[in-house]
Specification:
The protein is built from 13 helices and 18 strands. The chain is α/β, with parallel strands linked by helices. It has a four-stranded parallel β-sheet with strand order 2-1-3-4, sandwiched between helices. A four-stranded mixed β-sheet has the order 12-15-16-18.
Length: 466
């Protein structure tokens, strides 16, 4: 009888992976050593190797991993082999979806190839349920390792950002990265690709004080002080043959990005987006941002920046569209409530709809400028037949768009039918009313509406008793 070593050896492809966050004992050389020892002990001949050095196991799009499947496992022209040898489950991948790890192992099985984890050895054929359970647990542990590591890195970045320092990334156009010592004293400017060398050193930002810094100042001055439009600024920069951050021509989106970046007033912002563990990124709400004002020297004065935001808000279609949509929602809700109220009072559907649509109810988006709220309400000439107008303030982006109620005298409006006031004005305090008084004021407006109609015809007598 022949002993095992005299039998024809089985064939195998080995796969190794080592990423930057892994410890040295997981290096490709050490994985190869363990795998070759396992193969020798089990009379297996390794006919080919694939490796991914410095590649994360969170995703499958690794060059070596893809070659393993494309050139060997799923290639009918590849030499015959029975096994895929991998040091352990984590080397196969730290997939956050454990089904994904099982999926790739299943693809191997469909092609008649068995994935064998060297550190565990061959699974017990007499107790496959326990073996599968062990594999599932190890897949979870591999994924959990990455999650825990990601959390540690994230909270470390949060701590650094809360102190006003950079947690990574490049500087914005017109600024540069500056190395700072433990006493917050500047050491030197970091060139592109350079990083700090000592743990207690920190990286901050500072104006570059070159042509790019002057371009940032020019953009803000043209927009705020010279009242240039965005296309005019783009044209100006083009005529001056000034290049953008990527060396190409300026366009609308690049100018807006400059005008809206709070970095230029010395504010450090972190966690604007979520994109950890190689998962699809998404925008975080501002409430989750790490915001540190006055973290470093600014290029733009804070007041100039605020004025730019105030002017930019209504120039951006996305913003005024939000305002228009908020007014539409508020108008629809108010009209539905008034119509139903009138209908319940006994008016016909036609009468209730006529009154609802002709009542002097006006709307304005609440604006913020220099930390002060202000409104701009407008009326039509037909509204001047009333003594008063019910004014409703709306706030875009909220589930409940209606904010405040005001009752103005028509005499308060200028000859251009416009009324602008701020929260600091006496008009705000005199005209503001509580929501509980809305029914009373609408009743008064309906009486005014009835009186204006009686000049021409006596059609709405059903509201006389109010």
């Amino acid at each position: 009888m022949l002993i095992t070593s005299q039998q024809a050896p089985k064939k195998a492809i080995s796969y190794y992976r080592h990423s930057a966050e892994d410890k040295q004992e997981n290096s490709v050389a050490i994985q190869r050593q363990h795998t070759e020892k396992f193969a020798h002990e089990h009379n297996i001949e390794i006919i080919h190797e694939e490796a991914d050095e410095g590649k994360s196991g969170l995703l499958a799009n690794r060059p070596g991993f893809e070659r393993l499947f494309n050139d060997w496992i799923e290639n009918p022209q590849a030499p015959h082999f029975e096994y895929v040898l991998v040091y352990d489950v984590s080397r196969w991948g730290r997939f956050q979806d454990q089904d994904q790890a099982a999926y790739f192992a299943h693809l191997c099985k469909r092609q008649g190839k068995e994935v064998v984890y060297v550190s565990r050895g061959f699974p017990d054929a007499t107790n496959q349920l326990i073996s599968s359970l062990e594999t599932s647990i190890q897949r979870y542990m591999a994924a959990e390792y990455s999650r825990q590591l990601s959390d540690k890195v994230f909270y470390g970045c949060v701590k650094v950002s809360e102190q006003g320092y950079s947690a990574g990334g490049t500087a914005v156009y017109g600024m540069t990265r500056q190395l700072i010592d433990v006493n917050k004293k500047p050491i030197r400017i970091l060139n592109l690709g350079e990083h700090k060398q000592i743990a207690n050193e920190r990286v901050s930002f500072t104006p570059k004080n070159d042509d790019t810094t002057e371009v940032v100042k020019t953009i803000f001055n043209l927009f705020v002080k010279e009242r240039y439009s965005i296309p005019d600024i783009v044209a100006y920069l083009g005529l001056k043959e000034i290049s953008s951050a990527n060396g190409k021509l300026w366009d609308r989106s690049k100018v807006i990005k400059i005008l809206t970046d709070e970095t230029y007033i010395g504010t450090r912002i972190y966690n604007k987006t979520w994109g950890r563990l190689k998962q699809k990124s998404h925008q975080n709400p501002r409430s989750e941002w790490i915001i540190v004002p006055n973290a470093f020297d600014s290029i733009i004065d804070e007041q100039l920046f605020k004025e730019a935001q105030g002017r930019l808000y209504w120039l951006l279609p996305s913003n005024w569209r939000k305002g228009i949509n908020a007014i539409k929602r508020a108008r629809k809700n108010i009209r539905n409530d008034i119509f139903q109220w009138l209908f319940n009072k006994g008016l016909t559907e036609v009468e209730a709809k006529k009154i609802t649509w002709e009542l002097p109810i006006i709307f304005s988006v609440k604006n913020e400028d220099k930390d002060v709220s202000f409104w701009c309400f407008m009326i039509t000439e037909s509204t001047r037949r009333f003594d008063n107008a019910l004014a409703i303030s709306v706030v875009p982006g909220r589930k409940k768009v209606i904010d405040d109620f005001f009752l103005f005298s028509i005499k308060d409006f200028t000859s251009t039918n416009c009324l602008i006031f701020s929260k600091n004005s006496s008009l705000y305090h005199d005209a503001k009313m509580e929501g509980s008084r809305i029914e009373e004021k609408i009743t008064q407006l309906i009486k005014q509406f009835k009186q204006s109609k009686l000049r021409y015809r006596n059609k709405y007598q059903s509201v006389e008793s109010w």
